[in-house]
Amino acid sequence: MEPVPLSASYTEMTEILLPNDTNNLGRALGGAVLNWMDICGAVAAMRFASNQVVTASMDHVDFISPIEQGEVVVVEAYVFATGRTSLDVKVDVHAENPRSESPDRATTSSFFTFVALDEDGRPTPVPEVACETAEEESMREEAAAERRAQLEQVVDRLEEG
């Protein structure tokens, strides 16, 4: 199986934060954001694997900045590593205020693992990730390093606790 370029998986979704997806403070419900992240990650994984995928896991998520009603939510995802049948996807969420010239701001990110399925619903092999540019290689290395650091923090918390 030929490797597939990281760029083949890159996916960007946008949403406007409407009242149905907000809490009583007019800010994004965490569940709505997680749903968008899962959808965007799944699309990235499907594009990469050329197969249906299912969510196997989602790593730790911290909401670092609120998203206000009326803001544009930008969700970006890409495959940065693969196993035999699994795909590791980095998902980042940013918010932008379309009525101001302020730069967009990071709101959360996480790592998802998906499993590719064949026509019978059984796990099926996936290709390796190819990085065709220095930017893609940097994205891959950064995602892997961030995931390692995040997992180390979780282990440290468990050991303290």
Please give the radius of gyration in angstroms: 17 Å
Number of helices: 2
- At the first level of CATH, the class is Alpha Beta
Q: Would you report the number of β strands?
A: 7
* Count of domains: 1
Q: Which class do the helix and strand fractions yield?
A: alpha+beta
Q: Summarize the helix and strand pattern as letters.
A: EEHEEEEEH
What characteristic shape results from the CA principal axes?
A: globular
In CATH, what is the homologous superfamily?
Hotdog Thioesterase
- What would the CATH topology be? Thiol Ester Dehydrase, Chain A
Give the spatial strand order of the biggest sheet: 2-4-5-6-3
Q: Largest beta sheet, briefly?
A: 5 strands, antiparallel
Helix content bin: 25-40%
Q: Proportion of β residues? A: 25-35%
CATH architecture: Roll
Distance from first to last alpha carbon: 44 Å
Residue windows where pLDDT falls under 50 for at least 5 positions: none
Average of pLDDT: 96
Protein name: Acyl-CoA thioesterase
Domain HotDog ACOT-type: 7-120
Enzyme class: hydrolase
InterPro entries: Cytosol_ACT, HOTDOG_ACOT, HotDog_dom_sf, Thioestr_dom
